[in-house]
Amino acid sequence: MSDPTGRAAHPPTAWSGRAETDELETARAAPTGPVLRGFRIGVTSDRRSADLIDAFERRGAEVLHAPAVRIAPIEQDEHLVADTRAIIAHPPDVVVVTTAYGWRRWVEGADAAGLGDELAAVLDRAAILVRGPKARGAVRASGHDDAGIAADERTSSTVGLALERGVAGRTVAVQLHGHEDVEQLERLRAAGATVFTVAPYRWVRPTDESRLGRLVAAVAARELDVVTFTSAPAVDGLVSAAAQLGMDGVLVEALRCGVTAAAVGPVTAAPLVDLGVTPVVPQRYRMGALVRTVVEHLTTHGVAEVATALGPLVVQGAHVTFAGETVALPRGARAMLAALISQPGAVLTRERLLDELPDAENEHALDMAMSRLRAALPDRRLVQTVVRRGYRLNV
């Protein structure tokens, strides 16, 4: 079946709808209810951040949202129009499509610039290779057919498909996804291809940088349990904002130890790894899978139940439940309790506990933090003082 232009027609609802809902379906498969109650999560994404925030809040988490970067408005993107004109002037033999969102913005941007029909004619004559099912759905929804799909949804594998077809002396157009993948472009050029790129979206600085400053401060103070990243530029944006505040060192140290970084995929994780941060990454590179990974991480590593001499004590994030009462602990008290629970019944020295309070300058500050912990707990007797030695959990 074809439309009046002669292009193959595919019912949009059969593909684009599935692509749009895939992430949310995955998120709904994760545990629901207040499983994240007591946890605080930072969200750095701009596009579709509402879906991510809603998924966490429906599970009981408190969310701090501050876009680290944003996507430039399509009507202001002169680079997209210039890229499109260059590709129309040099019709590609092969087109590599990396993201569904990027493809849609490219087509929409071309239409807005009056180049839609010319671009469609060029794409009809090219072999379109897609990175994954979502990209395939977007291509087919726009009335085109693809000639191949990567098995593992990686850009490197999609480029590999092009190399298998043979690109020597041919022209290849690559749709970028937010940044230029130099290594993959060089693979094509080394094989003899003439390469053109199109960047359907560009990252620019956020409009409200005060929110980003608050997120930086919360991470540096270890007041968050997890910070999520859905793009590599967001990592750079957060660190750059911290550097402007003179806090990049403490921010990175907090992400290395104390606050978990969660990245949607290996491309997003790469700048974190370069900083010495080990993020959690889902096996499927989708927002829904990211939600499920964060839920699994926090419910596995952020929840503790200890049998004390006075009864069971349950700690979930900043929340402590004892004898049917649930209270929220401030940061310092939470750090003290986490240390005591890590070695139930053992006497922790004052020096050891001071290490958990980087802002504390002396033992008096430790005594004050311990006093605040006891005052916040449902029962002060849960923490015992061992004279001239330190403190212990009453087990």
Automatic annotation (TrEMBL):
EC id: 4.2.1.75
CDD domains: HemD, trans_reg_C
UniProt-listed PANTHER family: BLR5956 PROTEIN
Gene Ontology biological-process entries: phosphorelay signal transduction system; regulation of DNA-templated transcription; uroporphyrinogen III biosynthetic process
Annotated region of DNA binding: 301-395
Chain intervals for the UniProt region annotation (Disordered): 1-21
Translocase listed as a keyword: no
Protein name, per record: Uroporphyrinogen-III synthase
Stretches assigned to the OmpR/PhoB-type domain: 301-395
Species whose genome carries this gene: Terracoccus luteus
One Gene Ontology MF term: uroporphyrinogen-III synthase activity
Tagged with keyword Transmembrane: no
Pfam families: HEM4 (PF02602), Trans_reg_C (PF00486)
Protein keywords: DNA-binding, Lyase
Endpoints of the signal sequence: none
